[in-house]
Amino acid sequence: MTTSSSFQSVTSAYDGIVRGHATRIRDWAGEIWADKARLRRIAMIWGVAAVAAVALVLWLTGGRYTGTDDAYIQAAKLMVTTDVSGLVQSVEVKQGQHVKAGQVLFRLDPKPFQIALDTAKANLAQSVIDVNSTRADYRSTIGQVNAQAAQVRLAEQTYNRYAALAASNAISPIQLDQVRGTLQTARATLVSLQQNAQTQLAKLSGDPAMPVDRAPAYMKEKAAVDEAERQLSHTIVRAPFEGDVTEVDSLQPGTLVISAMSAFTTTSAVGLVSTSNTWVTANMKETDLTHVANGDPVSITVDTYPGHTWHGHIDAVSQASDSAFSALPSENASSNWVKVVQRIPVRITLDSKAGDPPLRAGMSVIATIDTHHRRWYRLLFGH
């Protein structure tokens, strides 16, 4: 009984205290509400403090993402042409057509190149005949050298006999002179034949049994045949990779393609833009690259497709700014120099998936990089 009465008295006292505080709070709120100037001062002070607190929290937890809208879709592209000159015979593709690697784009008239190939093959066959003829001439000359050597030995023997007879005055000096002349003529003929044999042997590279395909003349003509075949094959221009063709209308049948001018005009080539080898080049401010590293995930939105997001990752950060490759770089040693934040190209590889809309080179995009770093973390740990 005593315990129950004590509990009731404590509860009554607690209720009285609560009611007293509630009354004072209502009275204080009524006073503030009645005093509009005081209400405005409190609202301003606490409102600014609340906004500052929220901004501070957002700033400390932010800094994880960086990005730029100075970014564009890039794709492997090429003006496909040939290294031989000739008239365009036919164009096998049309503007915007999708082609596979190795598909024919256009053809040059092959007749001049076929004639050049036939001529080269004829010269090659003639070189085989020439080598075999030289080998036969060498063998014939060696036979003549051997026969003439026998004649020289016979003339020497005859001369020795006549010299012995002339010593005993058995013959006249005129007869001895005739025999001496015959010997000298035989020796001169032998020397001439030996020199001719050496010339023939030199044409065979010193090896009379050398195979025909190792002869220099044959190898020269064989190289000419290979070059003619290469040029003939290059009259058919094929796509080096898969993609969409463009700039087709500038190349028409009958156009004279000049190989030396192909790099300076579009009338000698067909444009090809890859549909699979695409990436994003983001020109980032140098001040935004502090914590950007290769492999960081990137979210990409394309202006053409609002609401659709692509994902990718940093492939490479350029080692030089765009201005470093300028033909006329800025001169920063002048007295009126103004510091300008430089842009560093960042290559972003797209992780494309089925169902993504098609991307075209030159499209404007917005790239957002996740650096995984927040300001509060850097403030606490210094990195």
Describe what this molecule looks like in 3D:
The chain is built from 6 helices and 12 strands. The chain has 383 residues and is α+β, with helices and mostly antiparallel strands. It has 4 domains: 2-61; 65-79 and 273-327 and 335-383, Efflux pump adaptor protein, beta barrel domain (Elongation Factor Tu (Ef-tu), domain 3), CATH 2.40.30; 82-108 and 235-268, OB fold (Dihydrolipoamide Acetyltransferase, E2P) (Beta Barrel); 111-232. It has a 6-stranded antiparallel barrel. A 4-stranded antiparallel β-sheet has the order 5-4-2-7, with no helix packed on it. It is elongated.
- Record the strand order, biggest sheet: 1-8-11-10-9-12
Radius of gyration: 49 Å
The computed structural class is alpha+beta
The helix/strand series, from N terminus to C terminus, equals HHEEEEHHHEEEEEEEEH
**Total beta strands:** 12
State the separation between the terminal residues, measured CA to CA: 69 Å
The helix fraction, in percent, is 40-55%
Overall mean pLDDT stands at 83
The gross shape turns out to be: elongated
In short:
The protein is an alpha+beta fold and 383 residues long.
Keywords:
383 residues; OB fold (Dihydrolipoamide Acetyltransferase, E2P); 6-stranded antiparallel barrel; alpha+beta; single chain
Helix and strand layout, with pairings?
Blueprint: H1 2-34, H2 36-61, E1 65-80, E2 86-91, E3 98-99, E4 104-108, H3 111-167, H4 173-203, H5 216-233, E5 236-238, E6 243-246, E7 256-257, E8 270-285, E9 297-302, E10 309-317, E11 343-350, E12 364-370, H6 375-381
Antiparallel strand pairs: 1-8, 1-12, 2-4, 2-7, 3-6, 4-5, 6-8, 8-11, 9-10, 9-12, 10-11
